[in-house]
Specification:
The structure is a single chain. The chain has 142 residues and is mainly alpha-helical. The protein is built from four helices and no strands. The two termini are 12 Å apart. The structure holds fe (ii) ion (FE2) (2 copies).
């Protein structure tokens, strides 16, 4: 990301993505207000809350582009503790979610659980990826 025009293109894409996420959040909020059915709201919440997460992470990336991000020894310790504490928890969550999905027979809960299981698998993979990326963080900057 050294060429200014590429940087600008990248920033435009991130901005566009944030606007898309905000559209989803706004529409989803409107719809959940129209139903008191907890399953209908869960169907919508699954996407709305992901969009909130995506917006939050994209805004952090957006902010990081205007400063030089450095990692201190204390920062590394925080990430280390995070990985250490969550590695086992996420593995456990995958196994538990697989069992719950297997036991569930109703179509809507099954649909929701299968998406949560995919989330848990992605959290598990994320922990492994973080373990690898720590080498780059140890170099001091992003
Ligand atoms: Fe998204
Ligand atoms: Fe998880």
């Amino acid at each position: 990301m050294t060429l200014p025009e590429n940087r600008k293109k990248f920033e435009d894409l991130v901005n566009k993505w944030i606007i898309l996420e905000e559209g989803t959040i706004k529409e989803a909020n409107k719809l959940t207000g129209n139903s008191k059915n907890p399953m209908v709201n869960a169907i919508i919440d699954l996407l709305r809350m992901d969009s909130e997460k995506h917006r939050h992470i994209l805004q952090a990336i957006q902010k990081s582009m205007h400063t030089t991000v450095t990692f201190s020894t204390d920062d590394l310790k925080v990430v280390d503790t995070f990985v250490e504490k969550h590695m086992l928890l996420e593995k456990n969550a995958v196994e538990t979610a697989e069992q719950a999905l297997e036991m569930s027979s109703l179509p809507i809960p099954r649909l929701l659980l299968s998406h949560l299981l995919n989330d848990e698998k992605s959290h598990d993979a994320y922990m492994s990826e973080l373990n690898d990326i720590k080498i780059y963080m140890a170099k001091g900057t992003d």
